[in-house]
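4.2 Preliminary Data

To establish feasibility before requesting continued support, the project team ran the inverse folding procedure on a target of 310 residues. The structure was first converted into the token representation described in Section 3, and no sequence information of any kind was made available to the design step. The complete token record follows.
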């Protein structure tokens, strides 16, 4: 199939593009390279440098390429930037995404597969692992934008019949994650430690996340395509909570425990807990996370060892 994939120079999008190409699909990648890296782009794909907020340019690409499937990974991914500049976040994560949804509906793509978020949409919950039908109370403009997209996709499905899947991820980590900026604590810690710097844990470090390995997330994206009849919202995680303190200890093992556990001030408004129930995607698409935490951290360490960006 011919597939248009936004954000294919980025962390998760590049892994999914590789999987799709390995299965014989023709891939057109759109990326503005604001946070992605050209070396992540699969050479067997067609790459177009473009910004999803540029409607006229994106409209022209859709008209020329006529994709059968759209995967949408391009986003403003920094939760803290969304707090400091919600207008910029909304321009990319709501308006840019709506451009893609409208154009996908206009040319009647077979399915729209969206890269969403779990923790940032549900907020702090008393029910963990948290299922998809839990009330959504995002604590950041980033989470609000992702939730708005889910609502737009439901609207386009109900009114126009646009098939979609929205995958709400836990905290994704693994090879190719960008260590710069505020997103991705695994990459940030590893990058700092490879440079001999001391990572600093925000607050007491007891805040928990559901860390899910990028190859498991890529597999969930492939399953969303293979199960064409499945429509709606699906969590993608491990249903296991891991504290930042335990995350640091696991990473530090790969450095022979040479780093001390250092704490700094807590970040104002930071979410305390996040853990996703993946029973729905397990039941509907036979998804199971296959990479345990220690193995995933080890593989990520090995990638940073070989590719550390200094």
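Position-by-position output of the design step:
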């Amino acid at each position: 199939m011919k597939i248009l994939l936004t954000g294919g120079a980025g962390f998760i999008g590049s892994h999914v593009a590789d999987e799709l190409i390995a299965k014989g699909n023709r891939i057109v990648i759109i990326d503005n390279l604001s946070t992605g890296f050209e070396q992540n782009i699969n050479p067997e794909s067609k790459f177009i440098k473009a910004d999803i907020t540029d409607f006229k340019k994106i409209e022209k690409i859709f008209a020329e390429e006529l994709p059968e499937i759209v995967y949408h990974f391009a986003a403003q991914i920094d939760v803290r930037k969304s707090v400091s500049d919600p207008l910029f976040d909304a321009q990319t994560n709501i308006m840019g995404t709506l451009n893609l949804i409208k154009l996908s509906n206009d040319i009647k793509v077979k399915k729209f597969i969206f890269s969403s978020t779990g923790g940032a949409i549900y907020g702090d919950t008393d029910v963990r692992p948290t299922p998809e039908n839990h009330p959504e109370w995002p604590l950041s403009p980033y989470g609000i934008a992702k939730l708005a997209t889910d609502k737009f996709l439901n609207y386009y499905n109900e009114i126009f019949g646009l098939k979609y899947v929205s995958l709400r991820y836990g905290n994704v980590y693994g090879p190719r994650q960008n260590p710069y900026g505020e997103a991705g604590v695994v990459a940030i810690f590893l990058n700092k430690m490879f440079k001999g710097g001391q990572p600093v844990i925000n607050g007491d470090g007891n805040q928990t996340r559901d860390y899910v390995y990028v190859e498991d997330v890529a597999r969930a994206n492939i399953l969303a395509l293979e199960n064409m009849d499945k429509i709606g919202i699906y969590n993608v995680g491990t249903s296991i909570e891991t504290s930042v303190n335990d995350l640091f200890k696991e990473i530090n093992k790969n450095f022979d425990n040479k780093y001390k556990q250092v704490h700094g001030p807590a970040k104002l408004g930071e979410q305390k807990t996040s853990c996703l129930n993946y029973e729905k995607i397990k039941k509907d698409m036979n998804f199971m996370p296959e990479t345990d935490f220690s193995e995933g951290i080890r593989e990520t360490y090995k990638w940073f060892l070989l590719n550390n960006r200094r």
